[in-house]
Amino acid sequence: MDYDVQEQVLDLYRNPLNKGLLKNATLQYKIDNPLCGDQVELTVKLDENDTVVAVGWEGNGCSISQIGASLLTNYIKNKSREELKKITSDEVIQMTGLNLNPTRLRCLLLAFTALQKIFL
Fold first, then answer.
1. Does domain 3-119 have CATH number 3.90.1010.10?
2. What region does 19 belong to: left with phi over 0, alpha with psi -120 to 50, or beta?
3. Which of 103, 109, 90, 95 is closest to 42 using CA atoms?
4. What are residue 111's phi and psi, to 5 degrees?
5. By three-state DSSP, how is residue 113 classified?
6. Who's near 51: CB < 8 A, 6+ residues apart?
7. Predicted TM-score (pTM) of this structure
8. Which of 9, 108, 116, 117 could serve as 68's disulfide partner, Cβ 3.0–4.6 Å?
9. CB-based burial of residue 84 (10 Å sphere; 0-12 exposed, 13-18 middle, 19+ buried)?
């Protein structure tokens, strides 16, 4: 792993984006990975045009699952319901700049899986 990428990942783990559940969420989904114990709960608030106006998350587990939740929640802000449905796992993977094995990819994509459950 590139040193700069590693530092960015560690900084994101120490200072997560959008951490905290929304009290007035329109949609909410909690998911866990039974293989490793990671958990993520995603909350999303949509406006009258079905656009994300706020997003939050809580969770625990490995740094990769927590980083995935941070990056994904930041990425989906101001996106419409239709745009959210088009997000792919490859987009989420590319956000990190990490080269992960299949087991770690499941960790990274935990919040993405929650997003899919909400919008698909």
1. yes
2. beta
3. 109
4. -65, -35
5. helix
6. 78, 79, 80, 81
7. 0.91
8. 108
9. buried
